[in-house]
């Protein structure tokens, strides 16, 4: 009876972990799309800024003023990183890695979706 209870506890933990990781996926996808869009905008703006012949002739701040698309997208990208977008983009893998660290002490692990992996017990000789 004790093993049935331990097994049900493991199943409940696995269910909760997979539920939590799956709930993070939609938000993670949105943050990834935002990061991709802003990165592409910044790269496109940077290309236009660098190939403009006037960029070399005017001061740095004047050239930024002449290229508002690049300036705004670059400031937005920097703001997103200060706001922690780099953590939000990889949140499910951070949770899984932390769980793996804790579960290693119990000869268990988990995959990136939160499914538990039971490892064989080490044989002590």
TrEMBL record:
<keyword id="KW-0443">Lipid metabolism</keyword>
<keyword id="KW-0472">Membrane</keyword>
<dbReference type="InterPro" id="IPR019168">
    <property type="entry name" value="NEP1-R1"/>
</dbReference>
<keyword id="KW-0963">Cytoplasm</keyword>
<dbReference type="GO" id="GO:0031965">
    <property type="term" value="C:nuclear membrane"/>
</dbReference>
<dbReference type="GO" id="GO:0005737">
    <property type="term" value="C:cytoplasm"/>
</dbReference>
<keyword id="KW-0539">Nucleus</keyword>
<keyword id="KW-0812">Transmembrane</keyword>
<dbReference type="Pfam" id="PF09771">
    <property type="entry name" value="Tmemb_18A"/>
</dbReference>
<protein>
    <recommendedName>
        <fullName>Nuclear envelope phosphatase-regulatory subunit 1</fullName>
    </recommendedName>
</protein>
<dbReference type="GO" id="GO:0006629">
    <property type="term" value="P:lipid metabolic process"/>
</dbReference>
<comment type="similarity">
    <text>Belongs to the CNEP1R1 family.</text>
</comment>
<dbReference type="GO" id="GO:0071595">
    <property type="term" value="C:Nem1-Spo7 phosphatase complex"/>
</dbReference>
<feature type="transmembrane region" description="Helical">
    <location>
        <begin position="33"/>
        <end position="51"/>
    </location>
</feature>
<keyword id="KW-1133">Transmembrane helix</keyword>
<feature type="transmembrane region" description="Helical">
    <location>
        <begin position="63"/>
        <end position="85"/>
    </location>
</feature>
């Amino acid at each position: 009876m004790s093993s049935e209870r331990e097994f049900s506890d493991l199943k409940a933990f696995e269910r909760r972990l997979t539920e939590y990781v799956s709930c993070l996926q939609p938000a993670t996808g949105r943050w990834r799309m935002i990061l991709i869009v802003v990165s592409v905008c910044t790269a496109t703006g940077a290309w236009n800024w660098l190939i403009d012949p006037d960029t070399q002739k005017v001061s740095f701040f004047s050239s930024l003023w002449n290229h508002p698309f690049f300036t705004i997208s670059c400031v937005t990208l920097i703001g997103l990183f200060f706001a922690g977008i780099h953590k939000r983009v990889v949140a499910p893998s951070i949770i899984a890695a932390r769980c793996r660290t804790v579960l290693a002490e119990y000869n268990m692990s988990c995959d990136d979706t939160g499914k538990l992996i039971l490892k064989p017990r080490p044989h002590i000789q």
